[in-house]
Amino acid sequence: MSFAIVSDTSCNVPMRLLSQHGVTLVPFTYYKKRDDKEQLSCIDIDSFDGKEFYDLIRKGTLFNTSQVTPQTYFDHMSEYAKKGQDVLYISMSSGISGSYNSSLAAKKMLEEEFPERKFLMLDTKAASLGEGIVLLKAIELRDKGLDIEECYKELDKMCKCIYQVFTVDSLRHLQRTGRLSNAAMIIGNLLNIKPILMGNELGQIINIAKVRGSKSAIKSMAERYDRLVKDPGSQIVGIAHSDNEEDTKYLIELLNKNNPPKEILTVCYEPVTGSHVGPGTVALFFLGDENVRSNQK
């Protein structure tokens, strides 16, 4: 392989799609509140028991997450450098996590240790399958023969086109972990409405609409897809959920109705990302034009 591709468990891509291409995932960590014992997020999302995990949260168990250290990134990437390979890292959004900044600190350490190698860190400004779609594209481009710098440039353009929209059962978890404002949480809880949230140009989570009921929320997401998606027949669309099969199936039905994509990849949120969004979440990830992240309507 011309260069190594590394990502993290936030990407939510099943290992069956990654292992044959030699992709390594850096594991994020989480732990129960008031419990210092860290647990590694599952490397293979297919093996994750989402129902068990999200039922724990429904019953009152809260989870916190830890930032990946620069040393952890160094340890994973140096193994490739020792073999004479450059490394491209596909990172979770810097707008909601400090992991990208940790990777930049690791980059300095790696360049000092392996000055002859290249280490490129890509901030997708996305999470879950938004990040995962970029990772799958990186594999495709590498397999086509692009070198690491050409691949980075193409993926950087792609990141500007990722539209991320989702709804949650409760804003409590996003607010508790600092991903959304307290005011937004109070409004949502008082009116018992479903928020429509998205990732903006900086990869931050913002509330763009409020509707009543789960079905209306899913319809709102599907309407945005129909209006904003670009060339759906050639792309992989992602859906991530937190133990919410019913709404996920409804969303798939709506996506296939007017503008069916080439493929829909559906996964359950792994525990680190899932602890921030909470049970019942449904998220949609697809590609639009280069200004799609600024569209808040």
3D architecture notes:
The protein is an alpha/beta fold. It folds into two domains: 3-28 and 68-159, Rossmann fold (3-Layer(aba) Sandwich); 162-294, 2-Layer Sandwich (Hypothetical Protein Tm841, Chain: A,domain 3). It is 39% helix and 23% strand. It has ten helices and 13 strands. The protein has a six-stranded mixed β-sheet, sandwiched between helices. A four-stranded parallel β-sheet has the order 2-1-6-7, with helices on both faces. A three-stranded antiparallel β-sheet has the order 4-3-5, covered by helices on one side. Helix 2 packs across helix 3, helix 4 runs antiparallel to helix 5 and helix 8 (214-228) packs parallel to helix 9.
Please summarize the sheet with the most strands. Answer: 6 strands, mixed
Q: State the CATH topology of the largest domain.
A: Hypothetical Protein Tm841, Chain: A,domain 3
How many structural units, i.e. domains? 2
CATH architecture of the largest domain: 2-Layer Sandwich
Summed up, the helix count is 10
Q: Strands of the biggest beta sheet: in what spatial order?
A: 10-9-8-13-11-12
Flag low-confidence runs: none
- Tell me the total number of β-strands: 13
Give the overall silhouette.
Answer: globular
End-to-end span in angstroms?
Answer: 43 Å
Mean pLDDT: 90
Tell me the radius of gyration.
19 Å
Structural class estimated from helices and strands: alpha/beta
Helix content: 25-40%
CATH level 1 class label of the largest domain:
Alpha Beta
Give the ordered list of helices and strands. Answer: EEEEHEHEHEHHEHHEEHEHEHE
- Strand residue content: 15-25%
